Amino acid sequence: MQKNDVPQDNSSLKSKNFKELCYAVNEDGEYVTAKSSGWDPKTIALNNAIEDINERVAAAKIKVLANEVSPLVYYMELHKMDLGILASYVSMWKWRVKRHFKPNVFQKLSLKTLQKYADTFDVSIDQLKNINHEN
Amino acid sequence: MKIDFTHHQSAHCENGVVANLMRYNGFKISEPMVFGIGSGLMFCYIPFLKINHGPAITYRSMPGTIFNRFAKRVGVKIKREKFKNKQVAQQRLDENLNKNNPVGLQVGVYNLTYFPDEYRFHFNAHNLVVYGKEGDKYLISDPVMETVTELTEKELEKVRFAKGPLAPKGHIYYPINFPKQIQLEKAIVKGIKHTCNDMLAPVPIVGVKGIKTVAGLIRKWPKKKGVKVTNHYLGQIVRMQEEIGTGGGGFRYIYAAFLQESGKLLKNETLLELSKDMTLIGDLWRDFAVDASRIYKNRSAKEDAYNAIANQLDIIADKEKVLFKALKKAI
Question: B13-177 sits in which CATH class?
Answer without folding.
Answer: alpha beta
